[in-house]
Amino acid sequence: MTSGHPLLSVRDLTVGFRGRDGQPTPAVQGLSLNLSQGGSLAIVGESGSGKTVSMRALLRLLPGSAEVGGRAAFEGHDLLRLPADRLRAVRGRGIGMVFQNAMDALNPTRTLKSQLTEHLRWHRICSRSEATRRAVAALDRVGIPEPHRRIRMYPFQLSGGMRQRAMIAMSIVAGPRLLIADEPTTALDVTVQRQVLDLLNDLRDDGLSLIMITHDLGVARYLCDDVVVMRDGRVVESAPMAEFVTSASHPYSKQLLAAALDVDTSTDATQQSAVPDPEPEAPSPLMRANDLVKVFNGRGGETRAVDQVSVSIHRGQTVGVVGESGSGKSTLARLLVRLIEPTSGTVTFAGADLLGAGRRELHQLRRRVQMVFQNPHGSLLPHLSVAANVMEPLRAHRVGTPVQRRQRALEMLELVGVPAQRADHYPRQFSGGQQQRVAIARALALEPELLICDEPTSALDLSIQAQILDLLGDLQQRLGLSMLFVTHNLAVAQRLCDRIVVMAAGQVMEVAPAHQLFTSPQHPYTRALLDAVLPVHSPPQRAAQPLDPPQTEEIRR
Amino acid sequence: MTTTEQMPADRTPPVRSELARGWLRFNRRPIAVASLVFVALLVLVALLAPLIAPYSFTEQDLTQRLLPPLSDGHLLGTDTLGRDLLSRMIFSLRTALLIGFGAELIALVIAIAVGLVAGYRGGRADQLLMAGTDVMYAFPSYLFAVLIVVVLGRSVTSIIIAIASWVTQARLVRAQVLKIKTFEYVEAARSAGTSGTAIALRHILPNAVGPLLVTTSFAIPGAILAESGLAILGLGVAPPTPSWGGMIVDGYRYVLSSPHLIAAPLVVFGLTMLAFTWIGDGLRDAFDSSEEDRS
């Protein structure tokens, strides 16, 4: 931390939103923070903690129903009381903002050039030709190759990582002193995330100060010197980062740190493999898929979403499928339960041919394979109570009388930790984590042998994620379930899985027992994935193994 | 670590179904509630018409023609044939509501059937049904109504059939179904082995009706208006059955001398249209899923 007067000093910031009844609902209560010249600060919190709202309040970007109080001095001027024209000058030239979703934040109908230079010309910083020169320089600075050519492109012509870089270029083009980045890498894959974070790190070396809003402690630790933890609109703890990760004082901070999973790559770890890994050719796996291919015919021509994939799941085993977005892992999960029909290949379940099964046979097989989806809010029927939701599969298979079904539903809800007195509530009355518990109860109601989970925790907050993982692990042991677990998160996979399949571009890169995969990855892509993981509990290694951007972009195609 | 998620039993929020929640939101708009009360009142009057009306709607007294309002024994005066205007207004409410609700009921049944099958089955069925819908859409609906009335006669039933317009709503249902079909709860139902019919009726339809109800409340006054249009062409409900359209057509010739003849149906007509529109606005709020009441 450099000395001198702070660049940004926020005192007792409060934000409330007036509802229909005119009563303000508090969103932020008493946020205070200091950011020194050249410093970097992470605001960490789960969804609804007020971290985004408070930063938007600083730039007065909130809707009219927001009531903002307190003081926020940027270079000595109170942002909350600045006249509109001076505020606009600060917004453009003093403080740059990077949003989470670059696709939404960039205007799809205009080229990068017009969006980058508009900024400079509005604020009358320089002439048109000078503006273009600076825009190209900014694109170059954020690592976009061939900036002269790409500046004439539209946002949708760029990949996700490139788009986020362009967004950053836009926010730095007018030379701000402070950059506020709101979850800039949450929508990105890990390998791309690492590149964008390294870019932000480079910009810090240029003297830019940084406020990073994130829910990911790994990201915060990688980039920031100080941390402010928020919860329910209040500051729970604020401390230097190095101190925070080793000796956080507040119980909530400790809980967050405990819930943050790291990938363990030390050789002596991971002896938790419950079931000894059978030989790949061991007799009769519960489910086996051979040479599965799924080709989607879209406007852009053929896409081989899943390409010659073979997987087998043995009884009592948890198999993880790990990959970045577009790797085909979710498509694979849907192929295995025949939610979509494969182009070619075979799937057998307990010896029966799943793909050749007729309607009635498939109906019977489906009883034994159930699925848990990523978005619990979207996977429950909104017009039915949670008990009725859990009863749905029983109805479909005409199991028992309505009274028995209800009894069974209550048992299942009990099993996943939803109390009986809440059984008649509707899904929207539950939090995301509780909704996912209900979805798991529904999947278990028919006593399946195999549970297929498609990113069941990635829509949830960190602390809830840990609870759901514990629940799944516990249920698996108690019920002797087999599981296929699709995730993009290596740490989650390591925690739960016996065997892991690494996928990229529809193909299997590597299959290995979990402990082996993390200690001695064979495939370069697996190594790249592991390197891109940002640890929370051990000091980050900055740019340990730089990845060549075009190469990873190609893998995503 | 589980403490953040579990809640004590005494803080359990009340159970609230989608319907109950919708009603609560509808209730937030006084004008929507007032409109609902107004329409309920209209329905009540229509049902009890023979008990309330002072005269029959056919009873003529040619010596008492074109009496102004507040005349002795005729609160709203009389028409060109000396019939009591109030009684005719009360009975015409029956015609109007029968046409409005009847036409929309038929339209809804067809629209849901067509939209659901087209959206859920897709492929051939979708192409055929939507081709049919497009043909209907392209055909001038007024001409179609005129043709039906000419063929089937000027009874209330044939007019209901003539002006039942299901095309737009069928497209709306189909669009809703296509959207909901991709939701995870439908995938969840499929992977649980639920049959196609059950998915369409139990999982998709209940979640698609919200916008449909909103358009319905806008379409009902539209149907009543369409009858008036036919009446002007001389193809409205056959006399002596009173209808707003017929009464306006009869009255407009005497606009200068006896403006009450046209004023009475126009005022009630206007209020009814407004009421249905405001109910529609209330319904739109009620089914807006953007607000959550999580525990």
Write structural notes for this entry:
The complex is a heterodimer of chains A (557) and B (295). By secondary structure, chain A is of the alpha/beta class. Chain A has two domains: 8-259, Rossmann fold, CATH 3.40.50.300; 287-534 and 545-556, P-loop containing nucleotide triphosphate hydrolases (Rossmann fold), CATH 3.40.50. Helices cover 38% and strands 24% of the residues of chain A. Chain A contains 22 helices and 20 strands. In chain A, the strands form four sheets. Chain A has a six-stranded mixed sheet with strand order 6-7-8-3-9-10, sandwiched between helices. The longest helix of chain A has 18 residues, at 462-479. The relative contact order of chain A is 0.11. Chain B has a single domain, classed as Orthogonal Bundle (MetI-like fold). Chain B has 295 residues and is mostly helical. Chain B is globular. In chain B, helix 10 (196-232) runs antiparallel to helix 12 (260-286). Mean pLDDT of chain B is 85; it is low at 1-10 and 290-295. The chains are: A alpha/beta (557), B mainly alpha (295). Chain A binds chain B through residues 20, 255, 258-259, 334, 337, 339, 362-364, 366-367, 369-371, 373-375, 378-383, 385, 392-393, 395-397, 417, 419, 421-422, 424-426, 428-431, 433-434, 439, 442, 446, 463-464, 466-467, and chain B through 1-2, 4-6, 9, 12-13, 15-18, 28, 183-185, 187-195, 198, 203, 206-207, 289, 292-295.
